[in-house]
Amino acid sequence: MKLIIAIVNRDDSSELIHKLNKAGFMSTKLSTTGGFLRAGNITLLIGTEEEKVQDVIGIIGKCCSQRSELVTSSAGNYSEHFFASLPVEVTVGGATVFVVDVEQFIKM
């Protein structure tokens, strides 16, 4: 038995959960916050048999593609009450996936 921990962009999570459920995989959704942009992420906990791990990773890969977005940067000149927000292009999306061994799995 394996536990897949997938950290994905909040915008990708609905489609991902739908596709996982459609393929027969159940998940637990946790709302999390990323450290870089302080943006909302979703962390999914997915338990599955070892032989189905690549199926789950494939679904994650199809639903969670990386893309570029413009975000407002908080860099500017604070002197004389002047502050400029500059748009910066960053890569968002994708997924960070951990696969760990599960010693015991009990569903009650």
Q: What does this protein look like?
A:
With 108 residues, the protein is of the alpha+beta class. Helix 1 (10-22) packs across helix 2. The chain contains two helices and six strands. The two termini are 17 Å apart. The protein has helices spanning 10-22, 53-63; strands at 2-9, 28-33, 40-48, 66-73, 86-93, 95-101. The protein is elongated, with a radius of gyration of 18 Å. Helix content is 22%, strand content 43%. A hairpin with a 6-residue loop joins strand 2 and strand 3. The model has no long low-confidence stretch (mean pLDDT 84). A four-stranded antiparallel β-sheet has the order 2-3-1-6.
Shape designation: elongated
Largest sheet: 4 strands, antiparallel
Helicity level: 10-25%
Q: Quickly give the structural class.
A: alpha+beta
What is the strand tally?
Answer: 6
The separation of the N and C termini measures 17 Å
Spatial order of the strands forming the largest sheet: 2-3-1-6
H/I helix tally? 2
Strand content: 35-45%
- Low-confidence region ranges: none
Radius of gyration: 18 Å
Mean pLDDT across the residues is 84
- Name the helix and strand elements from N-terminus to C-terminus, one letter apiece: EHEEHEEE
